[in-house]
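Incident log, structure service

09:12 report received: a user says their structure output differs between two submissions of the same chain.
09:20 pulled the input from the user's history:
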Amino acid sequence: MNKSFGLIFLSILLLLTGCDPGNVDLDNAGAERLLVTISNVPYDMPPASYKRIQLDPGFHGLIIRNAEGEVIKDTTIEVGIGGLLNVANSNYIIWRDLYGNPELKATLLDEQTIEVGEQVFVGDFTSIPTNQVYVEQVWDYCLNDDFGELITAWEPNKDERYRVKSKLYREQDFVTDYMKLATPK
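09:34 re-ran on a clean worker, output below:
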C-alpha cells in the first residue's frame, strides 16, 4: 500500500512540476554531432538534440568530443539542484513574464530590449553566455515545456492576483515563441 501511495505521489509531483523527470537539460543546439561523457556515462548528442538526465548534486567530470573524437572541452561542473548543460556553446535566453494585472509590470519585471539577429525584443530577459557550459536552474519551465500553454491555463484566484514565471529557451525557439505569444489573436 505504501509503495502504491509513493508511486501515485511521485506521478502527481511530476505532473505539477514544469520539467520532465531528471534535473539537467543536456542540450546540443549546434549543427554537429557531439559525444558527451558525464561522470563516465557517455551520451551521443546528434545536432539539435536534447536529453533530460538526472545528475546527483556535487561535482561531475565533463568531456565533450566532436564526431572525430577530438576533445573540445574537458572540465568539471558542480550541480546543485540541476540546470542546463550547454554542450555546443549555443545561445540561450531566459524569459520572465507577468500574468495578471499589466500595471504591475513596472514593479515586478526588469524590462529591457535585446537583439537577436536583426530583431529587437522588449521584456524581462537574461542571455546566458555561450561559453558558460553549465547553468544552475533559475527558471520555472525547461526547454521542452510549452510556455504559452502552461501559463494561459493559469487562472487567478482571490489569493493570487498575478504570477511571474520564467522559461529557458534556445535562441531560435525564443524568437518563434515570442512572435507567437506577442501576436494578438
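09:41 both user submissions now match this output. Likely a transient worker issue. Closing.
09:42 reviewer note: The two ends are 49 Å apart (CA to CA). The chain has four helices and twelve strands.
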